[in-house]
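Predict the 3D structure for this chain.
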Amino acid sequence: METYDALLASITPTSGAVRTLIDPATGEPVGDAPVHTVQDLEQAIAAAAVAQPVWAALGHEARSAALLRAADAVERSAEELARLLSREQGKPLNGPNARFEVGACAAWLRAAAATPLDPETVVDDGETRAELHYRPIGVVGAIGPWNWPMMITVWQVAPALRMGNAVVVKPSEFTPLSVLALVHVLNQELPEGLLTAVSGGRDVGEALAAHPAVGKIMFTGSTATGRAIIKSSADTVKRLTLELGGNDAGIVLPDADPKAIAEGLFWGAFINTGQTCAALKRLYVHDAIYDAVCEELTAVAAAMPMGNGLDEASVLGPLQNRQQYDVVAALVNAAKESGARVLLGGNPDPDRAGHFYPTTLVADIDNDNPLVTEEQFGPALPIIRYSSVDEAVAMANALDVGLGASVWSADPAAARKVAARIEAGTVWINKHGAVDPRVPFGGAKQSGYGLEFGVEGLKALGVPQVING
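Done. Predicted structure below.
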């Protein structure tokens, strides 16, 4: 186990260009990240191409054992990783935040190692025998976001490695230190050259997506960037897994208990201070219980402390960067100007250091308001009235995205019937955003395509091969 200072020193470049990362809660420097170039990327891909065949030849059992050792390494450095994540990304140590994220890294590594993937006998009728196998792709490129930088990197890396691939990771320019530190820890248990993080700019990401030696790109981020990756990857016909923007809807049915669901609604919307692709971003509540839901949700939200991530009392933090702060502020201001009713927040302190936007709930808002139709990706939730379930489903399905959604009801069977009508990759019942390493996850419509997690996630990191005869 390394100390925090030793961990940070291990990823601090001793030469070359650097970029200083700033704590979004304080404005103070966190550390320096290398500014890697396309030439650095070429070297990483070349090393991965050398390491990959040897790794693939080890077989599933040996590769899984290495992933389990890597999970142990993450746990040995868990507190140091969580502290760095909190300082760079802004999320608090406690709550479903930094320590939770590092713990999820270890959990997903273990799940990828433990998930069975046996050859499938497709036909065996005495005359024809056909088996479906999955072979390694080769070199996989993983491009990650700034909101859950460590956890999403592991979502990409763990199944890719388990399936016998090498991986080149391109972290977000906003949170490279977290990913560089995580890769440093994972590499304590992995062969040299198999896993590399290249901390560059947009040019590096574009080169990775277009590189002829890279067989697959995994990307989590905005729909706009996803479209650019599709174009960059087209000439080499790369396999793609894209988890893109959300703007998830939640529908509260009239039989729900407002008090019982209030905390679940809160965390569905405000986990990671709302900076989550599959967070609840627009809430539809039936007229019969609208006021009660607003009241109970406001009471829960008002009690949640927001502050510096290293403060053990905090469970909400700042926005990670000023650009996202400005997006949230503009959308809330537009809602206020339209006459919507602010139940909580909406009044940031201009003198407060850091990118803190207060927890904000907005009621009596039109469904075509920008705060509803555009993904805010921050701590502001619009609450929209509806009169019939048909109306709520139509509003939930009206947008061109469909990552996740949720239905809230005292009757799970009734909720499942409504869920089946919603156009989203995952619909949760009486919860929102609860991902599980055993359960496939992916988007519908312009929220991307391809599945992650579980057996389907492993298959997505392999090339299917039928052996017939």
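The longest strand covers residues 129-136.
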